[in-house]
Write a structure and sequence with these properties.
The chain is mainly beta. It has two domains: about 40-350, Neuraminidase (6 Propeller), CATH 2.120.10.80; about 355-450, Sandwich (Immunoglobulin-like). It contains one helix and 36 strands.
Amino acid sequence: MKKLTVLLILFSCTFIAAQQNDVIIKFPYNQAEHFLFNIQADTIQGTWTHIASIQRRLYGVTCYYRGNNQVFICGGADSSGYPVPYCYFYNITSNNYQSRDTLPSGEGRYLGKLVRVKDSLYLVGSVGSNFNIPDGKLYKYNPAADKWVTKSPVPAPLVHEMAVCVWNDSLIIAIGGSTNGFGGGTNTVKVYDPSTDTWRVLTNTFPVYISASQAECIDSTIIVMGGYSSVIYNKIFRGDISNNDVENLTWFEDTVYTPFGTGVYRVGSSQFGNYMLFGPALGSDSCLNQIWGFDAISNKWTRFLPNSLDVSAIRSVALKVQSDSISIFMFGGVEKDTDFYPTNSCEKFTFGNPLIGITQNGNSVPVNYGLYQNYPNPFNPNTQIKFDVLCGGLVKIKVYDITGREAAVLLNEIKSPGSYSISFNAGSLSSGIYFYTMETEGYFEAKKMVLIK
């Protein structure tokens, strides 16, 4: 009864506070309803710097950070739309490029998306030498062996420029795509299983016919941004996977406009922690050099500022994530108002990691659940919170201010039995009394902490 009363009070206070601050929130009441914040509330400041330029002017270069201070980049097209097959490691430490294996048969590719499953990279939805005739080719790269191989192509109808994301580090989900340049958008959803090198087509189709959109997936949520068909979509689409089965994928066309404020396509994207990053993007007549983050837990948009140094689009995004900072890398692209004339300029954006670090303390199994007093307390602005998990399951740790308004979500994921420590940086909060809670099946606890600045 105590737990229910506390939760009801917190929910009521949160709803009232949201109304008072003009943040419009749609709370779900059935499966057909879901919610996204429809205005942006937060910003994160960072620093842009130019890095070494790529060897030639290209757009549609794909990239992925593979660890060891190396970003893998491949392909791209020149101003005539001619694709190149060359691939490189960009060495972050030495700020130079090292040649890698070229794409199979020396065939140039551009656009598409480079994603990672297990220890391999996959180039999905790329365009070959003829933009109007997709070939559906799929390529796999083994970084350890520095070797590309060709895998099973997308099943007919052949498409390119699909919205691509990875689910559960095991399946590649490809949404829509064009059968003929910009004029052949589709609404099929296809799933590739790297372990068996097979494709399947899901029965639940996408809400609209679309190509040149972009997708990211965290846990059971897929967000699809923009895209092109007969119009450039100023929409966000959401997919929900239920029962941990990709076959149970349900799509919703959200009433929320893209955070760019206009229709966008060929959007760069990546993700870290709970954040899905989108940007830069191409609008109807200009490049939108903005980066936006969507928090899949709090359902809130964040603007990363300032805008990029280069007013360029058609750039994929590679992320290097560290405990205290995150760096975004982008290579080439097209410049504003230059009729798709590509650039060889490259840049890096670095900002403080807004997520909370979690460490497990030893491998022993606790005798009960437990939430401990934070240390130090009072604190400014960092503190540690220890907690014990008796049985594996979903664990939620949240912070509320004195009015009951949710101030931070520190954890919302499945944890195995064990003792853990989680750090909390309250740099963006005001001094005052806060409460932090731990909730899992059969257990709820709340404690008080004091922030003094």
